[in-house]
From TrEMBL:
Annotated protein name in UniProt: Universal stress protein A
UniProt source species: Melia azedarach
Domain of life, per lineage: Eukaryota
């Protein structure tokens, strides 16, 4: 039985976002689901975003160069394995702008059933000074949001 859910995974290629991506694959995805890799870049004059890019195209060098994204081998391996073993569809979407607003917008644009993201673990002082993307998204997103925290010492 396929479920055909739309699951978002916020990915900035940090250790925390890779842990969140692994958590999505290990705990949430079922056959027939689509995982949307959502990457937000700081604004550089462009406010829209990329079209939806199928995984088979996204990790090609010329596409990564076009969107100035540096996928590392770990992420490529994680997503290739998930696509093949879990029989899920992987699609990427790049946004330009403030991560807080763009992640909440992605929930609406892509009609996500769920969003998973990592936490940088700033602590209360860091959140006051820098703000917390995860806190903003949990508060404002219109779908369930799971925050995957890094284990201590990682």
């Amino acid at each position: 039985m396929t479920r055909d859910r739309k699951i978002g995974a916020a990915l900035d290629f940090s250790r925390g976002s890779k842990l969140a991506l692994r958590w999505v694959i290990d705990n949430l995805l079922d056959e027939g689901d689509t995982v949307y890799i959502i990457h937000v870049k700081r604004p550089e004059g462009e406010e829209a975003g990329s079209p939806l890019i199928p995984w088979e195209e996204f990790h090609q060098p010329e596409v990564m160069q076009t969107y100035e994204v540096n996928l590392d081998h770990e992420v490529v391996h994680i997503l290739n394995t998930a696509s093949w073993q879990k029989h899920v569809r992987v699609v990427a979407k790049i946004y330009w702008g403030d991560a807080r607003e763009k992640l909440c917008g992605a929930v609406e644009d892509l009609k996500l059933d769920s969003l998973v993201m990592g936490s940088r673990g700033l602590g209360s002082i860091g959140r006051v000074v820098l703000g917390s993307v995860s806190n903003h998204v949990v508060t404002h997103a219109t779908c369930p949001v799971t925050i995957v925290k890094q284990p201590p010492g990682v």
